User: Fold Phosphate ABC transporter ATP-binding protein from Neobacillus vireti LMG 21834.
Amino acid sequence: MVTTLLEKEIGEQTIQSTVPLQMEHILNVHDLEIFYGEKRAVNGISMDIEKNAVTALIGPSGCGKSTFLRSINRMNDLIPGARAQGEIMYEDLNILSEQINVVALRKEIGMVFQKPNPFPKSIYGNITHALKFSGIKKKSQLDEIVEESLQKAALWDEVKDRLHKSALSLSGGQQQRLCIARTIAMKPTVMLLDEPSSALDPISNAKVEDLIVELKKDYSIIIVTHNMQQASRISDKTAFFLSGDLVEYDATEKIFTNPSVKKTEEYISGRFG
Ligand SMILES: Nc1ncnc2c1ncn2[C@@H]1O[C@H](COP(=O)(O)OP(=O)(O)OP(=O)(O)O)[C@@H](O)[C@H]1O
Ligand SMILES: [Mg+2]
Assistant:
């Protein structure tokens, strides 16, 4: 399946990892460095991301969380001067390899941003837009995927009678769940969420949090959050970043009750950042 991510037939050994793959992990990051021009924003980090789990990325503003997240589905390619080195192994492929087909990659590794960004189209059209590009044209099939994605995103009941109304008529929290539904419709394996509920009211935030916990049955989720309660409520593993370094990465319970590094403790208790 993932071989469809390869742009062209090449000797696969050129992008094979030197480190044995561990099957319970969906991603293995080795010595990842990310630069904007001369400036290094991520300083050679290594970490394994678990399958069917929620991994939270925390740390003060500017520490490199979004930069790291965007490198996982190659969104940094869109930023002039951005470059990454090292490895992000996904199954047996290095995501950073030039041979990766980034359009196919972004279907398997979907992303939801801080600010809900629905297309100025109907609710239905938001979900089917990319599906049509990927060749699914049959109405019955599209209808089915729309319903299934909205159900999974816990939005179906609220919108089933107005699927052909503009997505922009939805509330912020509904728009964000629509963006999650749009990502789900592409049947990704990994979902990258960059502060997905920071712009939402507490009720919408709670819905998005419940949704994330529900989604980890089917997906591996990496979420950036500034909300320590959120990280401790919904994540299984937590990674604490500081100035481009991965300072500590462990089970969320350990990070929040008995961190090994003093800086982690200072950050989660609100003493800086
Ligand atoms: N497009 C860009 N061009 C140049 N430098 C950038 C760009 N995006 C981020 N940076 C720099 O990279 C570093 C990490 O930024 P990043 O956005 O990854 O931080 P962050 O941890 O997500 O912060 P926040 O919590 O504020 O979202 C910062 O020093 C930032 O100024
Ligand atoms: Mg950010």
Q: What stands out?
A: The chain has one domain: 2-268. The longest helix spans residues 139-152. The chain has ten helices and ten strands.
